[in-house]
Amino acid sequence: TTSSSKSKYMISEIISYASEWAWGSHKSDEVTPELCLSILPLLTGPCLSSLFSKLIGIAIIGGACLNKLPVLLSVIGTQSVAGFAASSVYGELIMYSNSVNYGILRGNPFTSFGENAAVLIQTIVMVVLVWKYKDDPPIPGAMRLVVVVFYILYLVYVHTFLVPDYYYLLMAANWPALMLAKGSQILETNRVKHTGGQSVITITMNLVGSMIRIVTTIVEIGWDLALLSGYIFSVVLNATMLAQYFIYKKNTTKFLEELKQKKKK
Q1: CA geometry: angle at 258 spanning 255 and 259, to 5°?
Q2: CA separation for the pair 225, 195 (Å, rounded)
Q3: Residues 147-162 pLDDT 10s
Q4: What span, in angstroms and rounded, lies between the C-alpha atoms of 214 and 53?
Q5: Of 8, 100, 123, 158, whose CB has the highest number of CB atoms within 10 Å?
């Protein structure tokens, strides 16, 4: 009997936790854990869309964990960051940091910004690789130190001094950061006429992820224009980068083959 009671208690706790995760953070009174549980398995539109949005968020986070993996493997394999703009990588570092910090400070569900946390970690690795392999010209040690110090000061300021009334500035700052990250990369690709080690998988994932995020943001958070405008702008820039990949595909193949031959010598 005791064992049966413990099992029932554990099942009850799991259901309670799962329902709180699925519906507890929803802004509408039409969606609450108690209400949605009471109508299982015949979920109403709002309960179903909220659950679906959460599951999509989890899928996006899972995909984001592999977002830059093709790029990172390409850079490590070729030991070259040719075709990558350092300013683009720095811009991504700022952009993803802003998105993660905004989500944390606003108390948004992790499923609404978790993919940014996953990509942020990969972007930090990319910064280190750019420092290691960039040779046209190399990144000076003093510049690396400035970047590290600036980033630490940024984190301290955001989590210590930034007041709630100004949290929106993090997302507002993502417009210029996004333009720096994607815009400088678009210009660099246009200059060298190839995409180097950029991955079509990563670019496509970024494009599709931004498109899906527009929908999930509306469902999970509402019409947060600071968030939505960034995702819409990201769709436009990622679509441009995807178009460049195919426009310069022949040049890129030739460049990578020449690079491989150089490494063999």
Answers
A1: 85
A2: 32
A3: 999 999 999 999 999 9
A4: 11
A5: 123
